[in-house]
Amino acid sequence: MLIAFSVSPLGGESENVGAAVAEAVxxxxxxxxxxxxxxxxxxxxxxxxxxLAVVKRATEVLLADYPxxxxxxxxxxxxxxxxxxxxxxxxxEQYLAN
Length: 98
Hints:
98 residues; alpha+beta; 3 helices
């Protein structure tokens, strides 16, 4: 499964958002799961329990420093398929090349 998520503090100074997001991304990177950082979301690939555990840990890291946190989640659930983090993009690129 792929999960695209965005977690950030709500309220306060907007200059701190980048630093807060970096802390959440650090959790994702330390998980060892395949992932991709984009301008709006971090995409993580894995099984239900492991992916959701990473999202929960990333959210808790922010809650340790901020009283309120926003979490946006989108999932692509396709049992039996792995490597979709890159395969989905490759399929679209093939269509664009034709």
